[in-house]
Fold this sequence. Notes:
- The chain is an alpha/beta fold.
- It has a domain at 6-39 and 97-140 and 183-262: TPP-binding domain (Rossmann fold), CATH 3.40.50.1220.
- 36% of the residues lie in helices and 13% in strands.
- The chain has 10 helices and 9 strands.
- A 6-stranded parallel sheet has the order 3-2-1-7-8-9, sandwiched between helices. Strands 5-4-6 form a 3-stranded antiparallel sheet, with no helix packed on it.
- Strand 4 and strand 5 form a beta hairpin.
- The radius of gyration is 20 Å and the shape is elongated.
- The structure holds adenosine-5-diphosphoribose.
- Adenosine-5-diphosphoribose (APR) binds at residues 30-32, 35-36, 41-44, 47, 119, 137, 206-208, 210-211, 231-234, 236, 249-251.
Amino acid sequence: MFELTPELARSLDEAAALILRSKHVVALAGAGLSVESGIPPFRGPGGLWTKYGEPTNLSYREFIRDPGEWWEARFRNEDRPGDPTYELKVAVDQARPNPGHHALVEMEAMGLLKCVVTQNVDNLHREAGSRSLLEIHGNRTWLRCVGCGDRQPREGYHFDSLPPLCAQCGGVIKMDTVMFGEPIPEDVLLASREQAESSDCMLLVGTSGTVNPAARLPLVAKELGASLIEINPDETTLTPWCDITLRGPSGELLPLLVKRLKNGGAAKPAGRA
Ligand code: APR
């Protein structure tokens, strides 16, 4: 159960003051942000990979070897209980944005958050209303052409023949979600790196900091003088580089942070007991 200790309250005050002093705040979001939407993380307690083991780095190679077979297998086994992707699919299908997603949207609307770089493919940032968003691992509700990179919403796409082929270039179409072993699309990778290089404060929200290139972004920012604020119930590999650590769930902490930002950094509006 979440408890706002005096020490955590002080750290929240510090974090709010730091954000208010910063010019280009960027958030790097991970699976932990969506845990309070009912989506299991990958690592740590209740993590999918904790339960089923990390997938091999071969997924993309298997897809490229025979995209038709990959798509046929996908349609054949769409609902395969006991499979990590099935468990994730059920959870994501039912998930809605939580107060953590909405708090990031509020910070953006207040002009205090320039961009969210997310590792999550669950589309919850878009549903919550984030506008400046980079989905470094793709988005499960989109398709992408392996040839020209053209992206389109999956909804309404007719899989008349398999593998689906790009109307633009005739290339093979895959899910937009980046597979293990697949290079991150160049455009989103460059944009994410630019955000890290431009930021003077980076929020690390619900990420274990274990998967590159995303996990390197905070270190790029730090090397260029940015401050790091970690929002996570647990320690991570990035904790040693963080200036402020807010130990707790993002769905609770981010709204408390926004409240302080609205009050100019204080927990309560000035002049009120
Ligand atoms: N609020 C904030 N953080 C939380 C919460 C919560 N309520 N619950 C758990 N966490 C933290 C965990 O402590 C952990 O540090 O979220 C983090 C989740 O880590 P991972 O499961 O490794 O997720 P992530 O860092 O996003 O993984 C990166 O790995 O498998 C790939 O493609 C996958 O995008 C994913 C990438």
